[in-house]
Amino acid sequence: MIPEGIGSSLVVSPKNTVSAWWVWLCWGALTLLTGGLVLWLGISIPYWDEWDAIVPFITGERAVSWATLWAPHNEHRIAIPRLILLGLDSLTGHEFRSGMIVSLLLLSATSAMLLGTVRKVRGHWNWTDAFFPCMLLNWGHAANLVMSFQVQLVMAGCLGCAAAALVCGRDRPSAPRLAMLALVLAVWPLCSAAGIVCGLAIVPYFAACLFYCRDANQPLSRASLVIAALALVVIPVECLVTYVPRASIHPPAGDVGNLLRHIALEFGMAFGPVVRVVGFPLAAASLGLSGIAVWWLWRGRTPTGAAGAGPTESPGARQTDNAILNRRAEAPRASHPLPRIGLALVIAAHLGLAAAIAWGRSGMGERAVLAARYVTLICPLLVAIYLAAVRFGSTPGHRFVTASLCLAHLALYPANLIASWSIVYPRKIEAAVLSREINLGVPLPDLVRRHSGVFYPSDAVFEHQLHKLHDARIGIFANIKLAPQTADTREAHTSPKR
Q1: Residues 466/442, Cβ–Cβ less than 8 Å
Q2: How do residues 150-162 score in pLDDT, each as one tens digit?
Q3: pLDDT single digits (tens) 469-478
Q4: What angle is formed at CA 56 by the lines to CA 53 and CA 60, rounded to 5 degrees?
Q5: Fewer CB within 10 Å, N or C, the chain?
Q6: Nearest to 339, CA basis, from 391, 399, 401, 394
Q7: For the chain, what are the domain ranges?
Q8: Beta-carbon neighbour count of residue 229 at 10 Å?
Q9: Contacts with 344 (C-beta within 8 Å, 6 or more apart), sequence order
Q10: Looking at the DSSP assignment, which residues form a beta bridge with residue 73?
């Protein structure tokens, strides 16, 4: 998903070498640290949505068919995540933590992809590029990382980051890059309803490609035009087909003042669940940085050393340090509108997504609006802001924005760790207690009564699915002691039918 080679040749210097070591050290260390926490705090017992969305497929109660895969889960169509989780279950022998590992690998790979992208855009790495692993691999994503079912939201967040990287490339989008972007937007609605909001917001990029196709300097190829035209028709239709009306699921938003407050707070979720404590300062930071980025994109001036500016060297050519310095000293040039339009649409898409989440959950209260699982969905907003700053920002301005984003996530890491710990650690304790009680032979009705409302809100569904897991002889659930039969029950089962 890394955009093609763009701009000037890559710059190599001792300072840049140190920056490269720093950003990749952060990426590796945070991948290992977050992976260790996932293995430690992840539970091998289904949790919440998994009991009615995945377990019936595993036990055979629900057949795997297009109708069941396509069936909505709340407001989402999650056909692709369901297939992934069912495939992992089959490959791992019912290891309920397998989806957690996939989520971690997706976030780590997306972070590495963005590091590759920003190097191609700028020509070298900067210490602030550690922002990408610090944002995507911090423990603020714990609510999604320690629940396999949440691979759907992790996929949605990673697809948003990929969209930002794909539109921030050379001025002339190649056919493979347009095809990859179209694929991203097509897969997105099949992972989460977020893909509907963002897909409809970003698809005008293909219209812009068709509008600027006759650029005398960089005309689009015929294959690019065909891909853009198809995407412009297919993706909106897909979004409409996958839409599930919200009104039939959650209570409507009530007070307008509360709704506006919730929308403002949702903008800050990209900084992590700590927004529930810090509140409006983080929301103001997101909106302020979005405004600065949109101004740069509207102005359309590119520093010559950035992507799309200055002459491109031939493959065998080498540049001297003096040539690089002279090129950087040139005045900024007007940039092509396509990358600017693409990044602006990604920013608008995720601001709209934050507003849609707040609107859809406002009727359930602030805790539902600021649920920690939404952190991963809003992260692409800051990715697009960062890339806009690197490619289109003024010299002092882009340094301020990129450094602020990196330092903010470094500073907030402990707070996000503490905020997420209170969410996932009690779950770990409850799972350990449930496992111990199963091995001790506690009867099924007592298990349900003791853990009422912890693993699933409906005790009837929880008991039914535990019984099905027992009957299917899956893992520890095969050891569940069913309720002892009463005399009346035994007589009903043994008496001859009339």
Answers
A1: no
A2: 999 999 999 999 9
A3: 999 899 889 8
A4: 145
A5: C
A6: 391
A7: 14-306+332-425, 441-494
A8: 15
A9: 294, 297, 298
A10: 76
Q: Does residue 94 sit in helix, strand or coil? A: coil
Distance CA 315, CA 5 (A): 11
Strand partners, 440: none
Are 86 and 62 contacting, i.e. CB atoms less than 8 angstroms apart?
no
Q: Whole-model pTM? A: 0.86
How far apart, in whole angstroms, are the C-alpha atoms of residue 205 and residue 190?
Answer: 20
pLDDT in tens, 348-377: 999 999 998 988 887 777 788 888 899 999
Question: Based on the number of CB atoms within 10 Å of its own CB, is 416 exposed (0-12), middle (13-18) or buried (19 or more)?
Answer: buried
Q: Residue 258 class from Cβ within 10 Å (0-12 exposed, 13-18 middle, 19+ buried)?
A: middle
Residue closest to 104 by CA, chosen among 189, 32, 2: 32
Q: Is 325 left (phi over 0), alpha (psi -120 to 50) or beta?
A: alpha
- Please state, in angstroms and rounded to a whole number, the distance separating the CA atoms of residues 419 and 76: 27
- Tokens for 82? 């369901």
Residue 216's contacts (CB-CB under 8 Å, 6 or more residues apart) are none
The secondary element (H helix, E strand) that includes residue 62 is: none
Q: How far apart are CA 14 and CA 259, in angstroms?
A: 51
Q: Which residue has the tokens 């649920």?
A: 371
What is the C-alpha radius of gyration for the chain, rounded to an integer number of angstroms?
25
Nearest to 6 by CA among 132, 116, 134, 154: 116
Q: Where are the beta strands (DSSP E) in 27-151?
A: none
205: left (phi over 0), alpha (psi -120 to 50) or beta: alpha
Helical residues (DSSP H) of 333-458, grouped into ranges: 337-361, 366-369, 375-392, 395-440, 444-450
Q: Kindly report the CA angle at 341 between 230 and 245, in degrees rounded to 5?
A: 60
